[in-house]
Amino acid sequence: MAGPRTIASFRLPPLPTIGEVIKLYNLRAEKQLSQNFLLDMRLTDKIVRQAGSLRDAHVCEVGPGPGGLTRSILNAGAADLLVVEKDNRFIPGLKLLSEAAPGKLRVVHGDILTYRMDRGFPEVITKAWEDDPPDLHIIGNLPFSVSTPLIIKWLENISNRTGPFVYGRTRLTLTFQKEVAERLTASTASRQRSRLSIMAQYLCTVRSCFTIPGRAFIPKPEVDVGVVHFTPLAQPQIQQPFKLVEKVVRNVFQFRRKRCRKGIEMLFPEAQRLELAEVMMREADVDPTLRPTELSIPDIRALADAYSHLCSENQGLLTYDFREELRLKHLKRRPGSSTNGTQQPV
Predict the structure, then answer these.
(1) Gap between the Cα atoms of 53 and 133, Å rounded
(2) Which of 101, 105, 210, 282 is most buried (CB neighbours < 10 A)?
(3) CA dihedral in degrees (49, 50, 52, 56; nearest 10)?
(4) CA gap 27, 12 in Å, rounded
(5) Average model confidence (pLDDT) for the chain?
(6) Local structure of residue 141 (DSSP, 8 states)
(7) Binding-site sequence positions
């Protein structure tokens, strides 16, 4: 009787170690790019395992650098690995790795913030949004400088089902500065609860996987690193446009130590501020004395729905920015001195 088929039996041939590749190509982590190399293959293997089975899967790796995580992804059985690397110093080493894995590794020299991932994979892998996630994963040991803007961009892509999410509910396994990882996964009323917690959790199931000590990286960062896994929800917990939700959440959390009503008031022009804030809080039926960190996703949903309703009745309200109103007020009060100006909230 024939034995079971082992699809994921591919193993890379003997190669220089990552440390040797770094020496071979004279690579150094650039501090201004917040680069930190992870050389321990046991840790890169552990990151990859958090993504689930990669057997015969399509994978996009963000910022592969010298290729440690790349090797772990290939050894996990990925059939098609696309790596997007901005720093051209790493391209020769990645091409060496591509030659060792013929037909499995594609190297793109580009910026992940602008790369069109919706064109990076075959349409045949696409799944309906309500179905199980597609056999496509995004994995990356992200530089600290790009991690927050990148996850915000991808969360908006999830909301709009664009970018890497044209294929369905593409899963992500990413590293973040430990503090950011804690914010992403923070529960209601916890100290780390933040704007990022709400924006991630209303769109995804967010799971904290494990923490990597800073000493595991070269050069050693001043902080530890958290690995976080995201699975987009089939139905977002808030049924409003991403920009509207983001505006409500941003306003609420800018006064995180005050009661939530303070931030809600700043959604409205000064002349109508108290009146419309009262209408919004009453329509949402949210306790105005709660601190921002105490607001649950259902609370934010009720506030976003109430704000959307008010925007439909008040032209221009959605684009109103209280900071701009304050700036114009300062200009009017500045004949020769700005000492009479109102201090802008921060």
Answers:
(1) 12
(2) 105
(3) -50
(4) 22
(5) 91
(6) -
(7) 36, 38, 63, 85, 111, 141
Distance CA 313, CA 107 (A): 50
Cα separation, 36 vs 39, in Å, equals: 10
- The pLDDT of residue 327: 87
322 vs 316: CA distance, rounded Å: 13
Report the alpha-carbon distance of residue 21 to residue 326 in Å, rounded.
54
Block residue for tokens 């080493």: 93
Coil vs helix vs strand at 103: coil
Element (H, E) at 328: helix 322-332
* Residue whose pair of structure tokens reads 């170690």 in the numeric block: 17
**Residues forming the annotated binding site for S-adenosyl-L-methionine?**
36, 38, 63, 85, 111, 141
| Distance, CA of 103 to CA of 119 (rounded, Å) | 18
Q: How confident is the model at residue 1 (pLDDT cuts 50, 70, 90)?
A: very low
**Structural domains of the chain, with CATH:** 18-232 (3.40.50.150), 242-332 (1.10.8.100)
Structure-derived torsion over alpha carbons of residues 45, 49, 53, 56, reported in degrees to the nearest 10:
-20
Strands 105-109 and 80-85: parallel
Which 3 state secondary structure label does DSSP give 140? strand
Asked if the peptide bond before residue 269 counts as cis, ω within 30 degrees of 0, the response is: no
pLDDT in tens, 249-277: 999 999 999 999 999 999 999 999 999 99
Q: What predicted TM-score, i.e. pTM, was given to this entire model?
A: 0.90
User: Helices marked H in 178-296 — which ranges?
Assistant: 178-185, 195-201, 242-253, 260-265, 273-284
Q: What is the C-alpha to C-alpha distance for residues 61 and 172, in angstroms, rounded to an integer?
A: 10
CA–CA gap between residue 22 and residue 7 (Å, rounded): 31
- Helices 41-49 and 68-75 sit at what angle, rounded to 10 degrees? 50
Determine whether 135 is exposed, middle or buried from the number of CB atoms within 10 Å of its CB (0-12, 13-18, 19+): buried
Beta strand segments in the chain, E: 37-38, 58-62, 80-85, 105-109, 136-140, 171-177, 204-212, 217-218, 225-232
